[in-house]
Design brief:
With 299 residues, the chain is of the alpha/beta class. The chain has 13 helices and seven strands. Strand 1, helix 9 and strand 2 form a beta-alpha-beta unit.
Length: 299
């Protein structure tokens, strides 16, 4: 099984990546390989041999390669997320087919949908109504700042102020540069979310993708803290990839990108464990149903 897939992968690499007419066959073979891994017929260590076929140029030039190479030391870093948001396509044409294939998957499309969901959420929270002070938004694990950039580019000054928290100094530097036109409306905090402290209470507390990497114990701990940062009448929303993610095998087997996937029921369970009343909890998703959103309204 692994040998046949390896030969097929080498063929794809030699031709510069799959063509759109080949996407279905590539996905089918990845799915079969994943079944073999789950059944124990293929050892997970064998996957390292597959990933090794992606050379230095591939890792430097493509979005897939960036995720595999982990230049900042972790999966899902701020730069790959921004590349997904922007549908980055390498200018190095011999490898561009790999970026086309990457962006064709449900997972990156769900990430882009997540950005749009956040922007709709901002617009829907009555921020357009007259206020004596701007509405306050806390963005936990704020990453590249692209969502905030796009939102602020379309609203009148004074509608919203943001506090962006991220533990990666490089992510904060990147977002500071991106958000420089609105510097007076954005505070940045370099902190591990589990150690972050604030006395401010926010109209919206948001986290896009951080919870995809937290086990249930850390999830409950951080969610409980975020709930205390949500002011009465405010809203807490966190994203988490669904177990229905059809891109999971591709991400894990060829990209070494592992998330903690959850169901809607899982999200309700951990939210209640964090002390949030069940009546306050609702779970939504973006259009594909791949990225779930746990919403908790504080009365």
């Amino acid at each position: 099984m692994i040998g046949d897939f390896e030969m097929y992968l080498v063929h794809l690499i030699q031709q510069g990546g799959p063509t759109p007419s080949e996407y279905h066959e590539v996905d089918r073979r990845i799915w079969l390989l994943n079944e073999a891994v789950l059944s124990g017929d293929v050892d997970r260590d064998d996957l390292l041999g597959l990933q090794a076929h992606f050379d230095t140029e591939f890792r430097r030039e493509t979005v897939h390669g960036h995720g595999l190479d982990k230049p900042f030391g972790y999966s899902g870093d701020f730069l790959i997320i921004d590349k997904i948001y922007l549908r980055h396509r390498t200018p190095h044409e011999p490898l561009a087919a790999w970026d086309d294939y990457f962006h064709s998957h449900a997972a990156p499309e769900a990430v882009r949908n997540r950005k749009e969901y956040f922007k709709r959420l901002l617009r829907s929270l009555e921020f357009e109504k007259k206020r004596t002070t701007p509405a306050r938004v806390l963005n936990v694990g704020s990453g590249p700042g692209r969502s905030v950039h796009e939102f602020l580019g379309g609203v009148e000054p004074g509608d919203v102020s943001f506090t962006c928290v991220d533990m990666d100094r490089r992510a904060l530097g990147y977002s500071r540069r991106l958000l420089r036109p609105w510097a007076g409306r954005i505070d940045f905090a370099e902190a591990n979310a589990l150690r972050y402290r604030t006395e401010t209470r926010f109209d919206l507390v948001w986290s896009a993708g951080l919870f995809d990497y937290l086990n249930d114990k850390a999830f409950v701990r951080l969610l409980g803290r975020m709930w205390t940062w949500t002011k009465p009448g405010g809203l807490l929303v966190v994203g988490n990839f669904s177990k229905a993610n059809p891109s999971r095998a591709y991400m894990e087997l060829l990209g070494d990108w592992h998330l903690i996937h959850r169901t809607s029921e899982d999200l309700v369970r951990v939210a209640m464990s964090a002390g949030i009343p069940q009546k306050s909890i609702r779970v939504e998703s973006e259009e594909l149903g791949v990225n779930l959103f746990l919403r908790a309204s504080r009365t």
